[in-house]
Amino acid sequence: MKAIMLGIRRALALHRTKSQQWTALLPPISHYNNASPKRKLSSAATVDIVEPPPPTPSKKSPHNVYMWGTSKKGTIPLHMLLSDSTLRVAPSNHCRRHRRRLRNSFRETKREGDVGLDKVFCGASGTAVVTTDGRCFVMGSNKNGELGIGDVKETKKPRHLPVPDPVVKASLGPNFSALLTAGGDIYTFGYGGSRVNGMGCLGHGSMDSYSTPTIVNSLIEDGCFASDVHCGEYSMTVLTTEGEVLTCGSGSYGRLGNLETIDQLYLEPVELIAAEDTVQIAGGFAFSLALNKGGIIHAWGRNNEGQLGTGMGLAVDMYAMESIPRPIEGDLEGRKVTRIAAGYTHAAAVTSNGELFTWGMNYTHEPKLESNLLHTKIVDVACGQNYTLALDENGRVYSMGKGKTGVLGLASTKSTAYPILVEGIPADERVVEMSCGWAHVACITELKE
Prior knowledge:
The chain is mainly beta. Helix content is 6%, strand content 39%. Pfam families: RCC1, WD40_RLD.
């Protein structure tokens, strides 16, 4: 039965790719919810498989990809950077503190013609590139198998991950990683955990490690289609097309959101937000966020630096945590949140009014309004290790936080406590997507209309 289900889903995904090129984002969760009835998560092996509608293809292809920050073990593909006199470069061979443009084609010797770069995902110590034909290439550190390229410890040149379905997202964690396919499947690889660190983060029912991408069969058995995935330190969070949040892996610090701190070998629903109709998830090193349809954020996991935004009482406690999802209130109360993001030990949110709120990093333990951005409307946000990028409605990027690795893109390694405009991207281009790793950044632009 398991093999039959997998074959059906692969056949459906292959059929759809013959008629269109895939973008790296699935449609809004509401699109799926309106198309098919709710399915309850079940452990039964026999379920009704309902094909989700195909994603809507993008009307405009990305024009360029810009990357900056520190390239550790090839996280920034320096050999693919174009020479451009309008874009300055720091003298170091390993640190690109200014914007630098990547080639807008991706040639493989065994295939004819050029394939465009569609998406770039920055992780803890690696980078994943998804091409316009749905193939995924990775580069960077593979110390724990987190790139899925076998026993090779690192690669500075893109290596192809042989996944049978088109890839729409990659989440590269510090110890393990996951790929989300257009058919709603998840492939995981890397370190499977231990009895000391916690086990089950790969979702395969054991603490075995996998050196190459391996499909999470439990999702197929339960009839679940994934729409998003996040890999933390030793835990994984998944969002289904039905708005249900699933977690697995280490239970320490309450990072699974189910009160108990025991490990989970398989993906299990976060019961206390099962009726919340979640539309977006985000996560950091050891905590998670879930945004529901009503614009309310729930947070759980480690809270030693205020990264949950729920306050920390009178003192900072290195063992502070929330083992069940808690709503983030404070100054966000009464506002509708539309976007969330999480970094190493901090997080951020964008409201329907275009306001940006941040918290964590021991700066503030509750949401703080970034008043320096009230002159413009913020539409998206991304967080890395101790820094934040905000995107406004005009396609301009603002950065703030610690800049020692060059991630702020401000031609300096200084830190800033307030958002500053990132300059250097050509005036005829606008940023449409951002991705933040621990020490490097990628932005995708398109030509202005």
